[in-house]
Structures
1.
Amino acid sequence: MSNQNVKLKISNMKKVYKNGDGVDNINIDVFEGEFLTMLGPSGCGKSTILRTLGGFLDIDGGDIEIDGQSVKDLPPEQRPTAMVFQSYNLWPHMTVFDNLAFGLKIRKVPKDVIKEEITKALKLVCMEGFDRKYPGQLSGGQQQRVAIARALLLKPSVLLLDEPFSALDAKIRSQMREELKKIQEDLNITVVFVTHDQTEAMALSHRIVVMNKGKVEQIGTPTEIYDTPATKYVASFIGEMNFFENGDGTTTAVRPEDIVVEKDGEGGDIEGHIRTIMILGHYVEVNIQVGDNVVKTYLSRSVADILKIKDKVSLSFHKKCVYSA
Ligand SMILES: Nc1ncnc2c1ncn2[C@@H]1O[C@H](COP(=O)(O)OP(=O)(O)O)[C@@H](O)[C@H]1O
Ligand SMILES: [Mg+2]
């Protein structure tokens, strides 16, 4: 991120559908050059927010400003935004070139400039030479690359992406992620990205907005969200977490990698017996029976090597979060 200028400001925004679903009290500042991700389970309101930003949904309260100007009453084509959807939304009867040229022709961009810009955009998304193909001749990943190129050609102030990679298989998805991250950094473009996939959010974002049932639970960097989840909900949604009820209404949360396991040890936080040992490559998942609970730990190979099923161990919490009721 290059600076702390607010590019997009969402204040007290409210959008409620007739059936009562929707989002309320949304306050988010997105900085220039920032990659911001809205993360949450299906139905929490991510697409609703993104559509209000793009102008595809009117809002019921609050405001949306881009570069200090309210855009809430502008139709999509008059907003300095461009949107990429999960379904690529390319016109099947048009070549890649014509799909890309469409928006520029409407803006009366000269023909030679259009050609030049399209060549550059296709290069950016690693699709050089595909201009004469039809969408039906391309894979899902290639179609989404074209859809991203089409959005970038509009030179939006803010690029909006709604689960753009969720229809792609895992390998292509992670490759596209990496490419999008590179494009975002090279162009220093402001991005609002939507996903329900926490790994994707962690990998791509400068900051993450964790959402739950139409409300914002926490806004923070991936490290802040992972290391100090603000609520029990965030703690359970992001990464793996062990929860311990303390009996006084409070809950202690500990990550599997923050537990130190000692064979025959004493004086730890709790004691238990080894239940399973699973070698997952460079680390080992060791599950420990503690009373009625199973506690998950991630240990290094050298530590796990000396442990056996049924061994008595003590567990010390290297780091923990405590949540009140
Ligand atoms: N057009 C609509 N009419 C009524 N309810 C809707 C409409 N679109 C979405 N919803 C509801 O609003 C909530 C948020 O939906 P959405 O923003 O699509 O969530 P997400 O993108 O996080 O999955 C859900 O409960 C959904 O069922
Ligand atoms: Mg959605």
2.
Amino acid sequence: MTSLTAAQVPAGTDRRSERVERIRQAAYRIRRNALDMGEVQGQGYIGQALGVADVLAVVYTDQLRYRPDDPDWPDRDRFLLSIGHYAIAAYAAMAEAGIIPIEELETYGSDGSRLPMSAMASYTPGMEISGGSLGHGLGVATGMALGLRHLGNPARVFNLLSDGELDEGSTWEAAMSCAHHGLDNVTAIVDVNALQADGPTVGVLRTEPLTEKWRAFGWHAVRVDGNDVAALVAAFDEVREHRGSPSVVICDTRIGSGVPLLESREKAHFMRVDENEWQIARDQLEEGLAR
Ligand SMILES: Cc1ncc(C[n+]2csc(CCOP(=O)(O)OP(=O)(O)O)c2C)c(N)n1
Ligand SMILES: [Mg+2]
């Protein structure tokens, strides 16, 4: 049997499927980390963390350039978490990325911990902004991206927003400004889980049609199933090559994804999980990986 060197393997076949499998494994560990942290508090933003795990696995283990042991490296790509309540998801991914020690996750939300329940830049290495007040991430991303361009620094700026965050006028001011300056070093990621604190997004404030809206604001926009790792990889690879305007990857995600027990539960912004359910959730997660 002849074997091909890496350079001879047709692009986009085996190497991509190996890459997807590697990211799928990372997403599994991110979900497991989130369940472990959720159990520390017994409740929290667990549905969101499970829903966005595939997106974060692609971003943190495949797209971002950073040095895990040097979070302030000037040439790092910046990942801005607008949505402070998604901290549990970010810590789960940062532990997988080697930025936070896995053992530290058990301190989540406790007094004196570096991992507060709402993300704070001054507490956590690698957390670029404090994002609890919704609607500020994209403005900060725009400013950072302008600064990096001014310095001739090729680093990219990623900003994870939620669908609820699109209710904020400041998000759309920033979207206009970012496009006006042609900041192709910015990639916005919107987690469209169709839910907000007060209920389904469609009932709180209609934000659709999202792709058309972002395009009208001058962005290169792609929409993707945010729980399909192969589709996410293709989308992030595609926007990486785009030049001349900022890009947005709109990700449709399922709350509780990967854990049928929590996926099928009434959709809740803040989820309570009974003491006996955590192990069931972990078992279901593992069964899903085997499939
Ligand atoms: C400016 C601002 N207004 C209101 C809130 C309160 N708040 C916290 S999370 C949240 C829901 C926002 O929607 P989304 O992030 O889509 O909710 P999820 O998908 O996590 O349920 C709200 C209104 C806030 N943090 N900041
Ligand atoms: Mg939401």
